[in-house]
Design goal:
Elements lengths: L1 H24 L13 H11 L2 E7 L7 E7 L13 E5 L3 H8 L2 E7 L17 E10 L5 H13 L12 E14 L10 H6 L10
Antiparallel strand pairs: 1-2, 1-4, 3-6, 4-5, 5-6
Length: 207
Amino acid sequence: MKLQVRLRQLIVLFLFLTVLEHASSSRILKIAKPDRHDIAASARWLVSQNIWGVLSTLSIEHKGAPFGNVVSYSDGLPGEGKGIPYFYLTMLDPTTRNALKDSRASFAVSESPIGTCKRDPMDPTCSKLTLTGKLLQLEVGSEEEKVAKKALFTKHPEMMDWPRGHEFSVFKLEIVNIFLINWYGGAKSITVDEYLRYKENKVASFL
């Protein structure tokens, strides 16, 4: 009987530790979804709360056809995001080679992975954002590259262990245009200036 009780205790402990491990690596939302009428807040919230999106470039191999790629990113340290997506890309990736040839790119994120939207991702009430601009490689050793690396490695710790021989570099999306849908009625009007100047203390990130 004592052996069975002890075995149950060990099983419960194992399950608790497993849940704790997963919880420690999961994202914790620090703010609720902004009011849909606050367009800048909605756009910045989508960028700060997500950890991945679809980065599209113009393919060298396919004669300029659009090439979308799922990538991880960060827009800054927790609570200090600036809304500019930074990426840690390898020279072995077509996305990187495409950007070095033609920097035009777009980056799309959705509310769906955050978990606050229970409808189909294409439903207008499930917010989605596409940032269009130029995908630029940061100068190695520059202050911006150091800050971007810290932000990326904080949000994606495993990046620190990625093979050095794969020639990873930090890139950023220099935003030129913003396309946001967070309700019925089509895309919402927001300028890049309005997006970038949105007060950071209103934008929460996650641990």
